[in-house]
Design brief:
- This protein is mainly α.
- It has a domain of 50 residues.
- The strands form three sheets. It has a two-stranded antiparallel ribbon with strand order 1-2. The chain has a two-stranded antiparallel sheet with strand order 3-4.
- Helix 11 packs parallel to helix 17, helix 12 runs parallel beside helix 16 and helix 15 runs antiparallel to helix 17.
């Protein structure tokens, strides 16, 4: 089969999976769809591997599917890398969905929408024209919205999340379309090849406006601050496999859109474009990690950490564009590699974490950390996989998160001499933001792992939790295995990332960015040996275990429960809660988080001077939502009420409106004439 046939076969397999999901009996829908989703991912993966191996794009055009414009598919090395990223998350998520199906994915609507959602994401990076891209982009958005709302019956939170997501994703699509219209109008064609060919002839204001519009539109899909507010609403309400796809793959396509517009269609741009991307990335990373450290809802915590990790990728993308604009091509390529590696790593560990959160909700019936605890003993396999994924996102060696953040740090460190004072200051501040983000991320996932999986159960449902079905465990395990392999052997993915980088940055010297099992960067005197780091950690761990056994032989150790602090009596009420664990962080960043505290004191009937019980409740809302979006919504509602008064149902008033408009039009024509 040719590459084009692989692409077509993958799309047909995705459509067939949707047909199976809509037609099979309830108990077989998820499994039947999962089989064909794996087939679709396999075909698209083969096509992507072939394009990355040869470095030559594959094009396909058909006038039979879309009227007037037709469908144009062009799979480039960059698009192939994102196809692999989507397939990396989609295959395990579909397997996890087999065991998770009874939580909303076993209806005919959800079982058919899920494979179509996967198929649309696989095809978005292959779009070769404005019309094809926007159709696939909107299809992806509508299907993800439908899957967020699968449990909306009687669930006000799900309906509210759907409304927020629908509003922001379609506002973002409108700005993306505006950017593409500007570029297509100036290029006299709507294919991406024609736009890229004529883009250098456009004026700087025209190009800058198009880039900013695309940055806003794609940034809203990527969850960039201040367009992130749909993430902590939609992710907790969506089924876990859908959340994994949205966070691990869909938001990465938002970053793909920024790269597509800035680097491919516009061919790069002035330094201020990319410094803007760098600043937005740093703010997103800080804001997301801070709210993740303060969240008590497990899926809300993971949603905010998505904003954090996408912010890190944008920081790498921003410094890459800035270095390219200042003609530091090799360092620019280094930073682009860091951005793409961060996205691939994020897809692996965030997919694993969201699927693990689904396993927790399936077993314990809650995603509230204050209602969990003790799950590691009751769900040893799922708990161990969550701990590994949490270590990966916390950038602990020898896992993949460490490799990505090491590359980002080196990019920022070497990019601090880019050539302008403003750029150097921005990069220096970005290094500080990255350091603070790393610390807050560790706090967030120590809290998630410690409060949720260790200690004693804080609710009866957590105490009754049992291990989830094998399909759910295998789905998480596949992604956890990727985290381990890419951490120890990052050279497995670097050739593909390098090929994608070369297709973006023209004039890059023909030097290897990787060598053997080590990570070496030509022209930059830095190297990383992940396999040696892993070996050192294993040796150190064995040495500590041997020392412990040696000490234990000399004196009988005292056994006590973990977190009991030596006490004989330990209850769940004596343990830290998620709120109390995060309270020191909230206190330091009180002006940013602005938490709302509520203390309710109950007194006995005999006296008001004694306290019978005290109940504390704290809520950390989103300050951007309260300060920016809520006032805008109130203003629209106010103007809507005023507009209602203009429609009283009186024919005479409507005729008056028409007469007034006619008079104004005639006066305007007279003045202009």
């Amino acid at each position: 089969m040719t590459t084009g046939e692989f692409i077509a076969a993958g799309a047909l397999a995705g459509v067939a999976a949707a047909a199976l999901g809509a037609s099979l009996p309830r108990h077989f829908r998820a499994a039947g769809a999962a089989v064909l989703i794996w087939v679709a991912c396999a075909f698209e993966t083969l096509a992507a591997i072939e394009v990355l191996a040869t470095g030559h794009p594959v094009a396909f055009h058909s006038s039979a599917l879309l009227p007037l414009t037709g469908v144009e598919i062009v799979l480039t090395p960059l698009g192939a890398l994102f196809v692999l990223l989507v397939a990396l998350v989609s295959a395990p998520a579909s397997l996890h969905a087999v065991g998770y199906a009874r939580h909303g994915l076993d209806t005919r609507t959800a079982a058919s929408a899920f494979p179509l959602f996967v198929t649309s994401m696989l095809l978005v990076p292959q779009a070769g024209s404005v019309a094809t891209f926007m159709v696939l982009w909107e299809l992806m958005a509508l299907l993800s919205l439908l899957l967020v709302l699968v449990d909306q019956a009687g669930n006000e939170a799900a309906r509210s999340a759907g409304a927020w997501y629908a509003a922001l994703t379609h506002a973002g699509a409108a700005t993306i379309l505006a950017a593409f219209i500007l570029l297509a109008a100036g290029s006299h064609g709507q294919s991406f090849a024609a736009i890229a060919h004529h883009a250098p002839l456009l004026g700087p204001v025209f190009r800058g406006t198009a880039f900013v519009a695309a940055l806003v539109g794609f940034g809203s899909k990527a969850g960039v601050v201040p367009f992130h507010v749909w993430l902590p609403k939609a992710h907790p309400e969506a089924p876990a496999p859908v959340s994994a796809l949205m966070s691990g793959a869909m938001v990465a396509l938002g970053v793909y859109g920024i790269i597509l517009t800035g680097d491919i269609l516009l061919g790069g741009g002035p330094g201020w474009w990319w410094l803007l991307v760098l600043v937005l990335g740093a703010i997103s990373a800080l804001y997301g990690s801070l709210h993740a450290a303060s969240s008590t809802d497990l899926k809300r915590l993971l949603a905010y950490s998505t904003t954090d990790n996408i912010g890190l990728a944008l920081m790498a993308l921003g410094i890459s564009g800035y270095l390219a604009a200042t003609h530091h091509n090799l360092l620019a390529a280094f930073s682009m590699v860091a951005a793409l590696v961060l996205l691939v790593n994020h897809a692996a560990f965030k997919g694993a974490l969201f699927l693990s959160a689904g396993s927790v909700q399936h077993a314990a019936g809650s995603r509230d950390l204050d209602q969990l605890g003790g799950l590691l003993r009751r769900m040893p396999q799922s708990g161990a996989m969550f701990l590994i994924a949490a270590a990966a996102i916390s950038a602990l060696p020898p896992l993949n998160g460490f490799v990505g953040e090491w590359l980002l740090f080196q990019s920022l460190l070497h990019g601090a001499s880019g050539g302008s004072t403003g750029g150097d200051v921005a990069v220096t501040l970005a290094v500080s933001a990255m350091a603070l983000t790393a610390g807050l991320t560790v706090v967030a996932f120590v809290k998630a792992a410690g409060i949720g999986f260790l200690g004693r159960p804080r609710s009866q449902s957590a105490g009754r939790a049992v291990e989830v079905p094998w399909s759910m465990r295998i789905g998480v395990g596949l992604l956890v295995a990727v985290c381990v392999v890419l951490g120890i052997l990052p050279g497995v993915m670097l050739p593909a990332v390098e090929r994608a980088t070369r297709s973006l940055l023209h004039g890059l010297p023909a030097a290897q960015l990787s060598s053997g099992v080590d990570l070496r960067l030509a022209g930059v005197r830095v190297a990383l040996a992940p396999l040696e780091v892993a070996g050192g950690l294993v040796v150190a761990s064995l040495a500590v275990m041997g020392l412990r056994r040696s000490v234990a032989r000399r004196s009988a150790p005292r056994s006590t429960e973990a977190w009991a602090c030596g006490r004989e009596l330990q209850t769940a009420r004596m343990q830290y809660t998620a709120a109390s664990f995060a309270e020191p962080v909230q206190r330091v960043f009180d002006d940013i988080l602005r938490p709302v505290h509520d203390l309710d004191l109950s007194h006995p009937a005999e006296s008001r001077y004694y306290i019978e019980s005290a109940t504390y409740h704290g809520v950390v809302g989103d300050v951007i939502e309260r300060g920016l979006y809520v006032p805008v919504i109130r203003a629209f509602r106010k103007w809507g009420q005023i507009a209602r008064g203009l429609q009283p149902g009186s024919v005479h008033r409507y005729l008056g409106y028409g007469f007034g408009a006619l008079v104004i039009l005639l006066v305007a024509l007279a003045v202009l004439a």
